[in-house]
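TL;DR need C-alpha coordinates for one chain.
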Amino acid sequence: MKRSALARHSASKYAATLFALFSLLSSTHGIYAAPKPNVIVIYADDLGYGDLACFGHPTIKTPALDQMAAEGMKFTQFYSAAPVCTPSRAALMTGRYPIRSGMCSDKRRVLFPNSGGGIPASEVTLAEALKAAGYQTACVGKWHLGHLPQFLPTSNGFDSYFGIPYSNDMDRIADRKLGRSIFLKPEVKYWNVPLMRDQEIVEQPADQTTITKRYTEGTIKLIQQYKKQPFFIYLAHNMPHVPLFRSKEFQDQSRRGLYGDVIEEIDWSVGQILEELKTQGLDQNTIVWFCSDNGPWLIFNEQGGSAGLLRDGKGSTWEGGMREPTLAWWPGHIPSGSVSQELGSTLDIYTTSIKLAGGNVPTDRVVDGVDLTPVLLEGGNSPREIMAYYRGTKLMALRKGPWKAHFITKPAYGNEPFQEHNPPVLYHLEHDPSEKYDVAKNHPNVIKELKAAAEQFQKTVKPVPSQLEIPLPN
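>> reply
TL;DR here they are.
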Protein backbone atom coordinates (compact mmCIF):
# COMPACT_ATOMS: atom_id res chain seq x y z
CA MET A 1 0.00 0.00 0.00
CA LYS A 2 2.85 2.37 0.83
CA ARG A 3 4.38 1.68 -2.55
CA SER A 4 1.06 2.32 -4.29
CA ALA A 5 0.57 5.61 -2.46
CA LEU A 6 4.10 6.67 -3.39
CA ALA A 7 3.43 5.80 -7.01
CA ARG A 8 0.22 7.80 -6.96
CA HIS A 9 2.02 10.75 -5.39
CA SER A 10 4.79 10.61 -8.02
CA ALA A 11 2.26 10.43 -10.85
CA SER A 12 0.35 13.39 -9.45
CA LYS A 13 3.55 15.41 -9.05
CA TYR A 14 4.60 14.53 -12.61
CA ALA A 15 1.21 15.61 -13.98
CA ALA A 16 1.38 18.91 -12.13
CA THR A 17 4.89 19.57 -13.42
CA LEU A 18 3.86 18.69 -16.98
CA PHE A 19 0.84 21.00 -16.78
CA ALA A 20 3.01 23.83 -15.49
CA LEU A 21 5.47 23.27 -18.34
CA PHE A 22 2.70 23.31 -20.95
CA SER A 23 1.27 26.49 -19.43
CA LEU A 24 4.69 28.15 -19.52
CA LEU A 25 5.23 27.20 -23.15
CA SER A 26 1.79 28.44 -24.05
CA SER A 27 2.22 31.80 -22.36
CA THR A 28 5.76 32.52 -23.52
CA HIS A 29 6.04 31.11 -27.01
CA GLY A 30 2.50 30.54 -28.23
CA ILE A 31 3.38 27.03 -29.37
CA TYR A 32 0.20 25.59 -27.87
CA ALA A 33 -2.11 28.23 -29.22
CA ALA A 34 -5.73 28.58 -28.25
CA PRO A 35 -8.01 26.94 -30.80
CA LYS A 36 -9.56 28.98 -33.58
CA PRO A 37 -7.93 32.38 -33.15
CA ASN A 38 -9.85 35.33 -34.52
CA VAL A 39 -8.41 36.70 -37.76
CA ILE A 40 -8.34 40.36 -38.82
CA VAL A 41 -6.74 41.43 -42.11
CA ILE A 42 -6.21 45.18 -42.48
CA TYR A 43 -5.41 46.03 -46.09
CA ALA A 44 -4.33 49.48 -47.25
CA ASP A 45 -4.68 50.65 -50.86
CA ASP A 46 -1.56 51.90 -52.70
CA LEU A 47 0.54 52.17 -49.53
CA GLY A 48 4.27 52.29 -50.25
CA TYR A 49 7.01 50.23 -48.65
CA GLY A 50 8.51 53.41 -47.20
CA ASP A 51 5.33 55.13 -45.99
CA LEU A 52 5.34 54.04 -42.34
CA ALA A 53 7.64 55.31 -39.60
CA CYS A 54 8.51 51.73 -38.66
CA PHE A 55 9.61 51.17 -42.28
CA GLY A 56 11.70 54.32 -42.39
CA HIS A 57 9.54 57.32 -43.29
CA PRO A 58 11.04 60.44 -41.68
CA THR A 59 7.96 62.67 -41.34
CA ILE A 60 4.84 60.46 -41.26
CA LYS A 61 3.95 59.55 -37.67
CA THR A 62 2.57 56.03 -37.22
CA PRO A 63 2.68 55.34 -33.47
CA ALA A 64 0.01 52.61 -33.52
CA LEU A 65 1.65 50.69 -36.35
CA ASP A 66 5.03 51.20 -34.71
CA GLN A 67 3.59 49.69 -31.52
CA MET A 68 2.06 46.86 -33.55
CA ALA A 69 5.53 46.14 -34.91
CA ALA A 70 7.05 46.36 -31.41
CA GLU A 71 4.48 43.92 -30.05
CA GLY A 72 4.49 41.62 -33.07
CA MET A 73 6.47 40.82 -36.21
CA LYS A 74 7.67 43.02 -39.05
CA PHE A 75 8.24 41.38 -42.44
CA THR A 76 10.87 42.99 -44.65
CA GLN A 77 10.47 40.69 -47.67
CA PHE A 78 6.72 40.27 -48.03
CA TYR A 79 4.89 40.57 -51.35
CA SER A 80 1.52 41.18 -52.87
CA ALA A 81 0.79 38.79 -55.72
CA ALA A 82 0.13 41.60 -58.22
CA PRO A 83 1.06 45.26 -58.71
CA VAL A 84 -2.52 46.57 -59.06
CA CYS A 85 -5.80 46.37 -57.13
CA THR A 86 -8.14 43.69 -58.49
CA PRO A 87 -5.65 40.84 -59.09
CA SER A 88 -3.84 41.47 -55.79
CA ARG A 89 -7.11 41.28 -53.85
CA ALA A 90 -8.14 38.14 -55.69
CA ALA A 91 -4.87 36.54 -54.63
CA LEU A 92 -5.40 37.51 -51.00
CA MET A 93 -8.90 36.07 -50.98
CA THR A 94 -8.06 32.81 -52.78
CA GLY A 95 -4.42 32.07 -51.96
CA ARG A 96 -3.89 31.66 -55.70
CA TYR A 97 -2.10 33.72 -58.30
CA PRO A 98 -4.79 35.65 -60.24
CA ILE A 99 -3.70 33.97 -63.48
CA ARG A 100 -5.37 30.81 -62.10
CA SER A 101 -8.76 32.43 -61.44
CA GLY A 102 -9.01 34.72 -64.45
CA MET A 103 -8.81 37.80 -62.21
CA CYS A 104 -6.24 39.51 -64.42
CA SER A 105 -6.00 40.76 -67.98
CA ASP A 106 -3.61 42.24 -70.52
CA LYS A 107 -6.35 44.60 -71.74
CA ARG A 108 -7.91 45.92 -68.52
CA ARG A 109 -5.70 45.89 -65.47
CA VAL A 110 -8.57 46.06 -62.93
CA LEU A 111 -12.35 45.83 -62.75
CA PHE A 112 -14.38 48.98 -63.51
CA PRO A 113 -17.99 50.01 -62.90
CA ASN A 114 -18.74 48.92 -66.50
CA SER A 115 -17.22 45.46 -65.96
CA GLY A 116 -19.50 42.45 -65.98
CA GLY A 117 -17.11 39.97 -64.38
CA GLY A 118 -15.83 39.23 -60.91
CA ILE A 119 -14.47 36.55 -58.65
CA PRO A 120 -15.66 33.16 -59.96
CA ALA A 121 -18.08 31.17 -57.81
CA SER A 122 -15.75 28.18 -58.14
CA GLU A 123 -13.05 29.92 -56.10
CA VAL A 124 -12.93 29.15 -52.36
CA THR A 125 -12.45 32.49 -50.64
CA LEU A 126 -10.76 32.92 -47.29
CA ALA A 127 -14.15 33.88 -45.87
CA GLU A 128 -15.75 30.69 -47.20
CA ALA A 129 -12.97 28.52 -45.81
CA LEU A 130 -13.15 30.16 -42.37
CA LYS A 131 -16.94 30.12 -42.32
CA ALA A 132 -16.78 26.36 -42.93
CA ALA A 133 -14.49 26.20 -39.87
CA GLY A 134 -17.14 27.85 -37.69
CA TYR A 135 -16.27 31.54 -38.05
CA GLN A 136 -18.46 34.62 -38.27
CA THR A 137 -17.22 36.70 -41.20
CA ALA A 138 -17.44 40.36 -42.20
CA CYS A 139 -15.99 42.57 -44.90
CA VAL A 140 -15.52 46.30 -44.33
CA GLY A 141 -14.15 48.62 -47.01
CA LYS A 142 -12.98 48.26 -50.58
CA TRP A 143 -13.85 45.01 -52.34
CA HIS A 144 -12.96 45.42 -56.04
CA LEU A 145 -13.66 41.80 -56.97
CA GLY A 146 -16.91 42.54 -58.80
CA HIS A 147 -19.80 44.88 -58.00
CA LEU A 148 -22.69 42.81 -59.38
CA PRO A 149 -24.69 40.89 -56.72
CA GLN A 150 -23.13 37.48 -57.43
CA PHE A 151 -19.62 38.89 -56.93
CA LEU A 152 -20.13 40.93 -53.77
CA PRO A 153 -18.73 39.82 -50.38
CA THR A 154 -22.09 38.51 -49.15
CA SER A 155 -22.14 36.09 -52.09
CA ASN A 156 -18.61 34.92 -51.34
CA GLY A 157 -18.54 33.81 -47.73
CA PHE A 158 -19.03 37.05 -45.81
CA ASP A 159 -22.00 37.41 -43.47
CA SER A 160 -22.03 41.18 -43.93
CA TYR A 161 -20.49 43.94 -46.02
CA PHE A 162 -20.09 47.69 -45.53
CA GLY A 163 -17.96 49.59 -48.00
CA ILE A 164 -17.20 50.97 -51.44
CA PRO A 165 -17.22 48.11 -53.98
CA TYR A 166 -14.30 49.39 -56.08
CA SER A 167 -11.65 52.12 -56.22
CA ASN A 168 -12.61 55.51 -54.88
CA ASP A 169 -11.55 57.34 -58.07
CA MET A 170 -14.11 55.56 -60.22
CA ASP A 171 -17.52 56.97 -61.19
CA ARG A 172 -15.84 60.28 -61.87
CA ILE A 173 -18.32 63.05 -62.65
CA ALA A 174 -15.95 66.04 -62.63
CA ASP A 175 -15.28 67.77 -65.94
CA ARG A 176 -12.57 65.84 -67.77
CA LYS A 177 -11.05 69.12 -68.88
CA LEU A 178 -9.95 69.62 -65.30
CA GLY A 179 -7.60 66.63 -65.71
CA ARG A 180 -5.63 65.71 -62.63
CA SER A 181 -6.12 69.08 -60.99
CA ILE A 182 -9.12 67.69 -59.13
CA PHE A 183 -6.75 65.49 -57.11
CA LEU A 184 -4.87 68.51 -55.76
CA LYS A 185 -7.96 69.72 -53.90
CA PRO A 186 -10.36 66.76 -54.05
CA GLU A 187 -14.04 67.20 -53.26
CA VAL A 188 -16.57 64.44 -52.60
CA LYS A 189 -18.83 65.74 -55.38
CA TYR A 190 -16.26 64.92 -58.08
CA TRP A 191 -16.86 61.16 -57.74
CA ASN A 192 -20.21 59.34 -57.53
CA VAL A 193 -18.91 56.18 -55.84
CA PRO A 194 -21.51 54.16 -53.92
CA LEU A 195 -21.33 53.12 -50.28
CA MET A 196 -22.99 49.73 -49.79
CA ARG A 197 -24.35 47.75 -46.90
CA ASP A 198 -24.56 44.11 -47.91
CA GLN A 199 -26.03 44.41 -51.44
CA GLU A 200 -27.80 47.77 -51.09
CA ILE A 201 -26.45 51.23 -51.85
CA VAL A 202 -26.95 53.34 -48.73
CA GLU A 203 -25.10 56.50 -49.78
CA GLN A 204 -24.07 57.94 -53.14
CA PRO A 205 -21.73 59.64 -53.50
CA ALA A 206 -19.99 58.22 -50.47
CA ASP A 207 -18.72 60.90 -48.10
CA GLN A 208 -15.07 59.98 -48.35
CA THR A 209 -13.98 62.56 -45.78
CA THR A 210 -15.38 60.27 -43.08
CA ILE A 211 -14.87 56.88 -44.72
CA THR A 212 -11.78 55.78 -42.75
CA LYS A 213 -13.48 56.78 -39.50
CA ARG A 214 -16.71 54.95 -40.37
CA TYR A 215 -14.84 51.80 -41.44
CA THR A 216 -13.08 51.86 -38.08
CA GLU A 217 -16.27 52.33 -36.09
CA GLY A 218 -17.91 49.53 -38.06
CA THR A 219 -15.02 47.17 -37.36
CA ILE A 220 -15.12 47.92 -33.63
CA LYS A 221 -18.86 47.18 -33.54
CA LEU A 222 -18.21 43.85 -35.26
CA ILE A 223 -15.56 42.93 -32.68
CA GLN A 224 -18.05 43.68 -29.92
CA GLN A 225 -20.77 41.72 -31.69
CA TYR A 226 -18.64 38.66 -32.43
CA LYS A 227 -16.52 38.56 -29.27
CA LYS A 228 -17.99 35.31 -27.97
CA GLN A 229 -17.26 33.28 -31.10
CA PRO A 230 -14.44 32.96 -33.63
CA PHE A 231 -14.54 35.70 -36.26
CA PHE A 232 -12.81 36.88 -39.41
CA ILE A 233 -12.90 40.57 -40.32
CA TYR A 234 -11.43 41.85 -43.57
CA LEU A 235 -10.92 45.62 -43.28
CA ALA A 236 -9.81 47.02 -46.63
CA HIS A 237 -9.25 50.77 -46.52
CA ASN A 238 -9.91 52.79 -49.69
CA MET A 239 -6.98 55.01 -48.73
CA PRO A 240 -4.34 56.13 -49.59
CA HIS A 241 -5.58 55.54 -53.16
CA VAL A 242 -6.28 58.90 -54.81
CA PRO A 243 -8.41 60.95 -54.37
CA LEU A 244 -7.11 61.49 -50.86
CA PHE A 245 -9.58 62.28 -48.09
CA ARG A 246 -9.29 62.44 -44.32
CA SER A 247 -11.54 63.54 -41.49
CA LYS A 248 -11.37 67.03 -39.93
CA GLU A 249 -9.45 65.72 -36.92
CA PHE A 250 -6.49 64.80 -39.14
CA GLN A 251 -6.54 67.79 -41.47
CA ASP A 252 -3.11 69.45 -41.75
CA GLN A 253 -1.68 67.32 -38.94
CA SER A 254 1.19 65.66 -40.80
CA ARG A 255 4.43 67.22 -41.99
CA ARG A 256 3.97 65.09 -45.12
CA GLY A 257 0.88 67.08 -46.14
CA LEU A 258 -2.39 65.58 -47.31
CA TYR A 259 -0.89 62.15 -47.99
CA GLY A 260 0.63 62.07 -44.52
CA ASP A 261 -2.70 63.10 -42.96
CA VAL A 262 -4.35 60.12 -44.67
CA ILE A 263 -1.71 57.65 -43.45
CA GLU A 264 -1.85 59.01 -39.92
CA GLU A 265 -5.63 58.49 -39.85
CA ILE A 266 -5.16 54.89 -41.00
CA ASP A 267 -2.63 54.52 -38.20
CA TRP A 268 -5.19 55.90 -35.74
CA SER A 269 -7.67 53.35 -37.07
CA VAL A 270 -5.26 50.48 -36.41
CA GLY A 271 -4.68 51.76 -32.89
CA GLN A 272 -8.40 51.90 -32.18
CA ILE A 273 -8.87 48.31 -33.34
CA LEU A 274 -5.95 46.89 -31.36
CA GLU A 275 -7.08 48.77 -28.26
CA GLU A 276 -10.61 47.36 -28.62
CA LEU A 277 -9.21 43.84 -28.84
CA LYS A 278 -7.30 44.45 -25.61
CA THR A 279 -10.36 45.96 -23.93
CA GLN A 280 -12.46 42.92 -24.85
CA GLY A 281 -9.73 40.52 -23.70
CA LEU A 282 -9.37 39.18 -27.24
CA ASP A 283 -5.83 40.29 -28.01
CA GLN A 284 -4.18 36.97 -27.15
CA ASN A 285 -6.67 35.08 -29.28
CA THR A 286 -6.63 37.31 -32.36
CA ILE A 287 -4.05 37.48 -35.11
CA VAL A 288 -4.03 40.81 -36.95
CA TRP A 289 -2.31 41.26 -40.31
CA PHE A 290 -1.49 44.66 -41.79
CA CYS A 291 -0.45 44.93 -45.43
CA SER A 292 -1.12 46.74 -48.72
CA ASP A 293 -2.47 45.61 -52.08
CA ASN A 294 0.42 47.09 -54.09
CA GLY A 295 3.02 49.81 -54.05
CA PRO A 296 2.59 53.60 -54.22
CA TRP A 297 1.01 55.33 -57.21
CA LEU A 298 4.07 57.36 -58.14
CA ILE A 299 2.56 59.09 -61.18
CA PHE A 300 0.52 61.22 -58.77
CA ASN A 301 3.65 62.83 -57.36
CA GLU A 302 2.99 64.24 -53.85
CA GLN A 303 -0.44 62.60 -53.86
CA GLY A 304 1.29 59.21 -54.08
CA GLY A 305 3.49 57.55 -51.51
CA SER A 306 7.03 56.24 -51.37
CA ALA A 307 8.53 52.83 -51.98
CA GLY A 308 11.55 53.83 -49.90
CA LEU A 309 14.74 52.28 -51.26
CA LEU A 310 12.78 50.04 -53.66
CA ARG A 311 12.55 50.66 -57.40
CA ASP A 312 9.37 52.02 -59.03
CA GLY A 313 5.85 51.59 -57.64
CA LYS A 314 2.27 50.59 -58.35
CA GLY A 315 1.72 48.97 -61.73
CA SER A 316 5.26 47.65 -62.07
CA THR A 317 6.88 44.32 -61.31
CA TRP A 318 9.95 46.02 -59.89
CA GLU A 319 10.20 45.65 -56.13
CA GLY A 320 8.44 48.93 -55.39
CA GLY A 321 5.30 47.66 -57.09
CA MET A 322 4.86 44.46 -55.10
CA ARG A 323 6.98 44.37 -51.92
CA GLU A 324 4.71 45.59 -49.12
CA PRO A 325 5.14 46.96 -45.56
CA THR A 326 3.73 44.04 -43.57
CA LEU A 327 3.06 43.43 -39.88
CA ALA A 328 1.61 40.49 -37.94
CA TRP A 329 0.37 40.89 -34.35
CA TRP A 330 -0.72 38.19 -31.95
CA PRO A 331 0.31 38.91 -28.32
CA GLY A 332 1.47 35.89 -26.37
CA HIS A 333 2.15 33.94 -29.54
CA ILE A 334 4.22 36.00 -31.98
CA PRO A 335 7.43 37.06 -30.21
CA SER A 336 7.38 40.81 -29.49
CA GLY A 337 9.59 43.02 -31.62
CA SER A 338 10.58 40.27 -34.02
CA VAL A 339 11.72 41.06 -37.55
CA SER A 340 11.46 38.41 -40.23
CA GLN A 341 13.59 38.59 -43.34
CA GLU A 342 11.93 35.42 -44.64
CA LEU A 343 10.09 35.36 -47.95
CA GLY A 344 6.33 35.75 -47.60
CA SER A 345 3.28 36.85 -49.57
CA THR A 346 -0.34 37.87 -49.17
CA LEU A 347 -1.00 34.48 -50.76
CA ASP A 348 0.27 32.98 -47.50
CA ILE A 349 -2.18 34.92 -45.33
CA TYR A 350 -4.84 32.68 -46.88
CA THR A 351 -3.20 29.34 -46.08
CA THR A 352 -1.79 30.39 -42.71
CA SER A 353 -5.13 31.73 -41.47
CA ILE A 354 -7.02 28.61 -42.51
CA LYS A 355 -4.44 26.35 -40.86
CA LEU A 356 -4.54 28.34 -37.61
CA ALA A 357 -8.33 28.09 -37.65
CA GLY A 358 -8.23 24.32 -38.04
CA GLY A 359 -9.92 24.66 -41.42
CA ASN A 360 -9.33 22.93 -44.72
CA VAL A 361 -7.16 24.38 -47.46
CA PRO A 362 -8.63 23.26 -50.82
CA THR A 363 -6.91 20.19 -52.24
CA ASP A 364 -8.74 20.00 -55.58
CA ARG A 365 -6.75 22.87 -57.12
CA VAL A 366 -3.36 24.52 -56.99
CA VAL A 367 -3.09 26.77 -53.92
CA ASP A 368 -0.01 28.98 -54.02
CA GLY A 369 -0.15 30.13 -50.41
CA VAL A 370 2.07 28.40 -47.85
CA ASP A 371 1.74 28.11 -44.07
CA LEU A 372 3.86 30.74 -42.32
CA THR A 373 3.07 29.50 -38.80
CA PRO A 374 6.69 28.39 -38.16
CA VAL A 375 7.86 31.89 -39.09
CA LEU A 376 5.25 33.61 -36.92
CA LEU A 377 5.53 31.52 -33.77
CA GLU A 378 9.10 30.31 -33.80
CA GLY A 379 11.00 32.72 -36.06
CA GLY A 380 11.70 29.76 -38.33
CA ASN A 381 12.33 29.48 -42.04
CA SER A 382 9.63 30.21 -44.57
CA PRO A 383 8.44 27.31 -46.72
CA ARG A 384 7.98 29.77 -49.61
CA GLU A 385 10.56 28.94 -52.27
CA ILE A 386 9.64 31.26 -55.13
CA MET A 387 7.71 34.45 -55.83
CA ALA A 388 6.24 35.00 -59.29
CA TYR A 389 5.73 38.56 -60.57
CA TYR A 390 2.83 38.87 -62.99
CA ARG A 391 1.61 41.81 -65.02
CA GLY A 392 -1.73 40.71 -66.36
CA THR A 393 -1.17 37.24 -67.79
CA LYS A 394 2.56 37.73 -68.41
CA LEU A 395 5.14 36.23 -66.07
CA MET A 396 7.50 39.19 -65.94
CA ALA A 397 9.95 38.04 -63.27
CA LEU A 398 10.62 35.33 -60.72
CA ARG A 399 12.39 35.32 -57.38
CA LYS A 400 14.04 32.29 -55.84
CA GLY A 401 16.02 32.73 -52.65
CA PRO A 402 17.79 36.10 -52.87
CA TRP A 403 17.82 36.10 -56.69
CA LYS A 404 15.32 37.82 -58.96
CA ALA A 405 15.33 37.41 -62.73
CA HIS A 406 13.35 39.80 -64.96
CA PHE A 407 12.36 38.06 -68.17
CA ILE A 408 10.29 41.03 -69.36
CA THR A 409 10.30 44.65 -68.19
CA LYS A 410 7.99 47.58 -68.81
CA PRO A 411 7.39 50.88 -67.01
CA ALA A 412 4.38 50.89 -64.69
CA TYR A 413 2.42 53.26 -66.93
CA GLY A 414 2.79 54.69 -70.42
CA ASN A 415 2.97 53.36 -73.97
CA GLU A 416 6.49 51.97 -73.95
CA PRO A 417 6.56 48.39 -75.30
CA PHE A 418 7.33 45.30 -73.28
CA GLN A 419 11.06 44.58 -73.42
CA GLU A 420 12.11 40.94 -73.37
CA HIS A 421 15.50 40.04 -71.93
CA ASN A 422 17.63 37.11 -73.01
CA PRO A 423 19.46 36.43 -70.82
CA PRO A 424 17.17 37.81 -68.11
CA VAL A 425 18.17 40.81 -66.03
CA LEU A 426 19.37 39.47 -62.67
CA TYR A 427 19.52 41.07 -59.23
CA HIS A 428 20.63 39.81 -55.82
CA LEU A 429 17.84 41.37 -53.77
CA GLU A 430 19.47 40.91 -50.39
CA HIS A 431 22.56 42.77 -51.61
CA ASP A 432 20.72 45.12 -53.95
CA PRO A 433 17.06 45.65 -52.95
CA SER A 434 16.94 48.74 -55.17
CA GLU A 435 17.59 46.60 -58.27
CA LYS A 436 20.40 48.82 -59.53
CA TYR A 437 23.07 46.31 -60.49
CA ASP A 438 22.43 43.65 -63.12
CA VAL A 439 24.72 40.73 -62.28
CA ALA A 440 23.49 38.28 -64.92
CA LYS A 441 26.91 38.00 -66.63
CA ASN A 442 28.51 36.83 -63.40
CA HIS A 443 25.95 34.15 -62.56
CA PRO A 444 24.99 32.01 -65.57
CA ASN A 445 24.13 29.06 -63.32
CA VAL A 446 21.68 31.18 -61.34
CA ILE A 447 20.06 32.32 -64.59
CA LYS A 448 19.71 28.72 -65.66
CA GLU A 449 18.17 27.74 -62.32
CA LEU A 450 15.63 30.59 -62.33
CA LYS A 451 14.62 29.95 -65.94
CA ALA A 452 14.03 26.30 -65.09
CA ALA A 453 11.98 27.29 -62.02
CA ALA A 454 9.87 29.65 -64.14
CA GLU A 455 9.26 26.95 -66.76
CA GLN A 456 8.28 24.47 -64.07
CA PHE A 457 5.90 26.98 -62.48
CA GLN A 458 4.23 27.85 -65.77
CA LYS A 459 3.49 24.18 -66.36
CA THR A 460 1.10 24.38 -63.38
CA VAL A 461 -0.89 27.25 -64.94
CA LYS A 462 -3.99 26.39 -66.95
CA PRO A 463 -5.44 29.29 -68.99
CA VAL A 464 -8.94 30.41 -67.96
CA PRO A 465 -11.15 33.20 -69.36
CA SER A 466 -10.42 36.67 -68.04
CA GLN A 467 -13.10 38.02 -65.74
CA LEU A 468 -11.82 41.56 -66.28
CA GLU A 469 -12.73 41.53 -69.96
CA ILE A 470 -16.39 40.60 -69.53
CA PRO A 471 -18.61 43.58 -70.41
CA LEU A 472 -21.48 44.73 -68.24
CA PRO A 473 -24.74 43.08 -69.35
CA ASN A 474 -27.22 45.33 -71.14
